[in-house]
Specification:
heterotetramer; A alpha+beta; B mainly alpha; C alpha/beta; D alpha+beta; A: alpha+beta; 3-stranded antiparallel sheet; 16 helices; globular; C: alpha/beta; Beta Polymerase, domain 2; 2 domains; two-stranded parallel ribbon; 5 helices
């Protein structure tokens, strides 16, 4: 070819296209059937559109066709990692609606269960986050080693490892035996040592720090504006924990602190969860010291247990919320005086925390999107409902 | 002892002697090659099969699990069961994939992995081909696998595969550079490119016991891990990000071939690291080939240990590590070995360490994004705030 | 601060806006005023309701309702419950997604399940159900498909894939199609709302 | 801090776990795998899998009265009860058919809680996997009935409490019946 025919246009910058990739619904690290519609420029993310609903069961409609008591086992299936926390929120909302009192021992049992659930959730979430980071299952299995012990307790107390269905309006389903309490004490005693080991494996690891620090920074004002709750919010440095704000159940009796993050990146979300577990251990220690023999369910409520159809809360509405390990788990209930709720709504933290997914991901690499999603901590059962 | 040490050499010689009685010379020559090739072709897949088992066992133990133990005693037949499963699985070619590339890639990827075995000195006098440019041959051949991986990723017609392929090419080419440069000191000291001669040069002491040897070994080993796409450098097949990278769309025997190539090259690079820095088959009491295998398996064990412990790098950090950290260190290492060669007595040690240590420190400081930040966490109570550092 | 004080404060600060107290919550009488009320609650230093905890719809047969739970993270107070009622045939409510990012998905969810149209929402698509889904399943008059009766389209699909269908089921589906119905079963409706 | 020290520290954690897996106990860093079909974790007494029906003595003498409460309160509606009738069509206090679709059941234990006749309880049997979802997992009355001894065996504390309650109720009933029967004979009828 003659040299003169080479035109100047050939040296122009390359004409590149963006690449649209669907991460999910079948993907190893979308934590279930969640889809991220990611547009990539090379490896850099241009936009992220979350697509959900693959696990949608219309939980709210199912609940509106059931009695109040029969919804309880369905709440287990929302966030199937912490069914006790879901039970707690629902029981709280119904108790608010029907003005039911809860005896002291039941309150203690509830707090113990809720905090054990928090340990289960946080420890496994960190494990999953590390899996997303590419660690080959080691942190997950260490986490599951501890989780198994707590699940054994759940099984002994409620009858099921994950779908506990343990809380009842006005108390809990069954009493906790002293042997079980002793077992919980043992677990709680050993847990800090496990956390130390876990931290030795992870916290200072240079690769983890490289990957997580300054990735997915969530500024506090955006976090508040986007209704982010839970560890994700606190990692951004906003001091808001419903256990402290609402002081529901008997949380005001325990002294515990709320860990707040520094920058609001993935690393802070990881470390805030570790610190939260340490605080949970403190609550558990105090609760196990404070628990006294007594009624585990209010005598007035026992009648509803046998005849759920006789349970008719007065006409009205209630919004009960708890600090579930994922964030604010709220139940909005409207009663029309019949045994079935007229309106039942779940404010699921997994869904609402995802609002900022795109803001966090854009400009980062593909690998970062995965860990940002992992650090937000979603559970599809709760997200899609 | 001598007999045990030369067991395989004698066996081959015996066979050739037998053949030489009846057959012409050129057939004996061919037979000599065939015997070596057959030995490698048996040894390499066998190693690969049992490395998969070993990896699963080691990682299992790290994770407080038992690992495979159902097929045979201690799961010893597990690789065979896996092999049968792989062979009988349906071979799926994606719709509109490039069938030729898709078919050829797994075939091509196994070849360089096997070819490397030709220059590996398994024991005293146990090198299949004692090339006088052995190291160069190794580097040249091992870089071919990049092409096969890119063929696989392109031919699959899958976006995950494509991403994986792009990552592979970038990674493989980047890590080749510090890897080769980290070998240069050894070549300078040994004054040869032949693998056997390099081992002989380590008669006085393994190269790894010198400052430049240690630095070179670490650089070489890290690059080797990256070359094999092993954790923590496994971004081309990062499961949590791009499903399985370049072999997302492979099933059955083709997938098995990718797997085989990976494990064979794991063995090959470990063997080369042993040859270059750990004295090869040299060692007291035990037969030379056993020494060699023990050292190689120890390095492979470290790779499994990495896999059981470490998260993965991100693609830009991975490239940064190669170009901004390992490459300058490898260059300085070449300078250090010159210093070592020409200085007398204690000065060698003081000078080498005096150069390597500060330069390591300087490069970590220059790559500030790699150094973990210190974070301060507030623990808010109602009344007072307390801080903890992490 | 009790609910009537909040009401009087809102009404004095925003002339022309009238709110009504309904079971410990504030009903904004005109949906169009919602954004003004919310902006006031968010910005005024007395309330600082910076956190929109929950947005949801509800169907009361005569009207649709959208319920908002507002909290203050800055002052740790709350909730103030706001509600807006709209006609079923024209369910248009101004979107809060531009004031609170947190409303984005929740309003999409309410649109998906109740069919409440949030005006000026940046991206009002169905959230859980697929595009093209007919009806809004949480409305009380939503007719559920009966899973035991196959639709004519289903039967056609099954037969195309070589699955034999009993004659009576095919006939039943065909009859329903002739009547212009999909395979439907009447869901019992409830009598009254709150 | 030297670059890489965190990684090395983490590697020692895994090395420690690798080593301890050979000699420590499961809760102290040893192997925590239970090789399932051969070894099993003992089931907790409160463990619940699927519901079954209790009978006293013989399968004819079942406690269920076909009151249909469990079927109505079952959250996923997996229980189907048909009340038995005699030749004249009058309903009897026993089920003609009692079917639970185990593939729908969600093991919540509501039926056990609401049953007024202490008839339905949650089983410990969980290995019910089968090839056919319809034929094998829809449990009919004959498959559901299990003896009280079995119940006592799997859940001794609950079963004994139930038995005690039932005995007391029985005695009360007898006493009441005896007292109700007595006055008719002995006492003179009260003036109206």
């Amino acid at each position: 070819m003659d040299e003169k025919t080479v035109t100047v246009q050939d040296t122009n910058p390359m004409d590149t296209e963006t690449l649209e990739v669907n991460f999910g619904p079948q993907h190893p690290s979308t934590h279930g059937v969640f889809r991220m519609n990611i547009v990539l420029d090379g490896e850099t993310i241009v936009s992220v559109k979350p697509v959900m609903g693959y696990l949608h069961r219309n939980h709210e409609q199912i609940a509106e066709n059931l009695t109040y008591a029969a919804v309880m086992p369905y709440t287990d299936r929302l966030d199937y990692f912490n069914s006790m926390a879901n039970n707690f929120g629902y029981a709280l909302a119904v108790e608010k609606l029907a003005r039911i009192e809860v005896p002291e021992r039941a309150q203690y049992i509830r707090v113990i269960m809720a905090e054990l659930t928090r340990l289960v959730n946080h420890v496994s979430v960190i494990g999953f986050l590390l899996n997303d980071l590419g660690a080959f299952f080691t942190p997950v299995l260490y986490a599951f080693r501890e989780r198994e012990k707590i699940l054994d307790i759940f099984e002994a107390i409620s009858g099921s490892r994950m779908m506990c269905n343990y809380f009842r309006f006005g108390g809990v389903k069954r009493d906790v035996s002293d042997a079980d309490l002793e077992q919980i004490r043992k677990i709680v005693q050993k847990f800090p040592a496990f956390l130390d080991e876990f931290e030795a494996l992870l916290t200072k690891n240079e690769i983890l720090c490289m990957r997580c620090q300054n990735v997915g920074v969530l500024p506090p004002d955006l976090a508040v504006n986007a209704s982010i709750t839970g560890p994700v919010l606190r990692a951004s440095g906003v001091n808001y924990d419903i256990r402290k704000v609402d002081r529901y159940s008997i949380y005001e009796r325990f002294s515990f602190r709320i860990p707040l993050g520094d920058k609001g990146d993935v690393y802070d979300r990881y470390y805030v969860r570790i610190l939260e577990m340490r605080e949970s251990v403190k609550i558990l220690e105090q609760a196990l010291k404070g628990i006294r023999p007594g009624e585990f369910i209010h005598p007035k409520s026992t009648s509803f247990l046998k005849l759920p159809r006789n349970f008719k809360p007065p006409v009205g509405e209630a919004y009960g919320r708890v600090e579930s390990p994922k964030g604010e788990l709220g139940y909005y209930l409207v009663s029309d005086g019949t045994p079935q709720p007229w309106r039942y709504h779940v404010r699921s933290p997994s869904l609402i925390n995802l609002t900022v997914l795109e803001d966090l991901c854009v400009g980062h690499k593909v690998a970062d999107a995965i860990i940002i999603l992992g650090s937000i901590d979603i559970i599809l059962g709760e997200l899609d409902r | 002892m001598e007999y045990l040490d030369q067991l395989f050499v004698f066996a081959k010689r015996l066979m050739l002697d037998l053949l030489a009685r009846f057959l012409p010379d050129w057939i004996v020559l061919v037979a000599s090659m065939v015997i070596s090739i057959v030995a490698i072709l048996i040894f390499a897949p066998l190693t690969m099969m049992y490395l998969t088992l070993l990896e699963r066992k080691v990682v299992g133990r790290i994770q407080n699990r038992i690992g495979p133990n159902r097929v045979g005693k201690f799961g010893l037949l597990q690789p065979i069961a896996d092999g049968i499963k792989m062979l009988t699985k349906e071979d799926i070619v994606p719709f509109q994939a490039d069938p030729v590339l898709h078919f050829l890639a797994p075939v091509i990827i196994v070849m360089p992995a096997l070819l490397i075995f030709a220059v590996i000195p398994f024991g005293r006098g146990m090198t299949a081909v004692d090339l006088n440019i052995g190291i160069l041959y190794f580097i040249a051949v091992s870089s071919i696998s990049t092409i096969a991986i890119f063929m696989a990723s392109w031919g699959s017609r899958n976006k995950f595969s494509l991403l994986g392929g792009m990552r592979t090419v970038a990674q493989m080419i980047s890590y080749e550079v510090p890897m080769v440069l980290s070998v240069v000191p050894v070549i300078l000291v040994a004054e040869t490119l032949s693998t056997n001669a390099i081992i002989e040069a380590q008669s006085a002491g393994w190269f790894v016991w010198t400052p430049w040897g240690l630095a070179g070994f670490l650089i070489f080993f890290l690059c080797a891990v990256a070359e094999c796409n092993r954790s923590p450098f496994d971004i081309p097949e990062a499961e949590s990000e791009i499903v399985a990278g370049f072999h997302t769309e492979y099933s059955g025997i083709k997938f098995a071939l990718f797997y085989m190539a990976e494990f064979i090259s794991v063995f090959a690079v470990s063997a080369l690291a042993v040859t270059l820095f750990l004295g090869g088959w040299k060692g007291p009491w035990l037969p030379s080939w056993l020494w060699f295998l023990l050292k190689a398996y120890a390095l492979i064990g470290v790779m499994f240990w990495f896999r059981g412990t470490l998260p993965r790098f991100r693609v830009d950090q991975l490239m940064g590590l190669a170009w901004k950290f390992l490459l300058p260190l490898a260059l300085i290492n070449i300078f250090v070995v010159g210093f070592w060669y020409f200085s007398p007595g204690l000065w060698k040690w003081v000078g080498s360490l005096g150069i390597l240590g500060p330069s390591f420190w300087i490069f970590t400081k220059l790559n500030r994004s790699y150094v973990p930040e210190n974070r301060v966490y507030r623990l808010a109570e109602d009344e007072n705030n307390e801080t903890v550092g992490a | 601060m009790n609910i009537s004080e909040i009401k009087s404060k809102i009404e004095s600060a925003l002339p022309g806006v009238s709110v009504k107290i309904v079971s410990q919550s504030l009903l904004v009488e005109k949906p169009g005023n919602l954004t003004r009320v919310v902006r006031y609650l968010k910005d005024s230093p007395e309330f600082r309701m910076d956190y929109l905890a929950s947005v949801t719809g509800a169907d009361y047969l005569d009207y649709l309702e959208s319920v908002y739970h507002l909290y203050s993270m800055a002052k740790k107070t709350g909730p103030i419950v706001l509600r807006v009622r709209v006609r079923r045939d024209e369910p248009k409510i101004p979107s809060l997604a531009r004031i609170y990012r947190g409303a984005e998905f929740q309003e999409r969810e309410a649109y998906d399940l109740f069919g409440i149209l949030y005006e000026n929402h940046p991206d009002l698509r169905r959230l859980f159900l697929w595009e093209g889904f007919e009806g809004f399943p949480l409305r009380k008059d939503y007719l559920q498909e009966d899973s035991e009766i196959l639709e004519a389209e289903d039967i056609q699909w099954l037969e195309e894939h070589g699955i034999p269908i009993p004659e009576d089921i095919r006939k039943q589906a065909h009859e329903l199609k002739q009547q212009g119905l999909r395979a439907l079963a009447q869901k019992p409706t409830k009598e009254s709302g709150v | 801090m030297i670059f890489g020290s965190g990684i090395i520290r983490g590697m020692f954690v895994t090395l420690k776990n690798f080593a301890t897996s050979y000699f420590r106990k499961p809760d102290e860093g040893g192997l925590f795998t239970v090789e399932y079909p051969e070894k099993r974790i003992p089931l907790k007494e409160r463990f619940r899998s699927f519901p079954f029906l209790v009978y006293d003595g013989t399968p004819e003498n079942l406690r269920c009265t076909a009151c249909d409460i469990c079927a109505r309160e079952c959250p996923p509606k997996c229980i189907y009860v048909v009340r038995a009738a005699d030749q004249d069509g009058r309903p009897l206090r026993r089920p003609a058919a009692f079917t639970i679709d185990y593939s729908v059941c969600m093991n919540c234990g509501m039926c056990e809680e609401v049953c007024p006749f202490d008839s339905i309880f949650m089983d410990h049997e969980f290995e019910i996997a089968s090839q056919d979802r319809y034929r094998e997992l829809v449990y009919t009355l004959t498959k559901l009935l299990k003896s009280n001894e079995y119940f006592n065996n799997i859940r001794p504390r609950d079963a004994q409490a139930v038995d005690k309650k039932r005995r007391e109720a029985e005695e009360k009933k007898k006493l009441a019946a005896a007292q109700a029967a007595k006055p008719k004979l002995d006492e003179p009828p009260k003036p109206v």
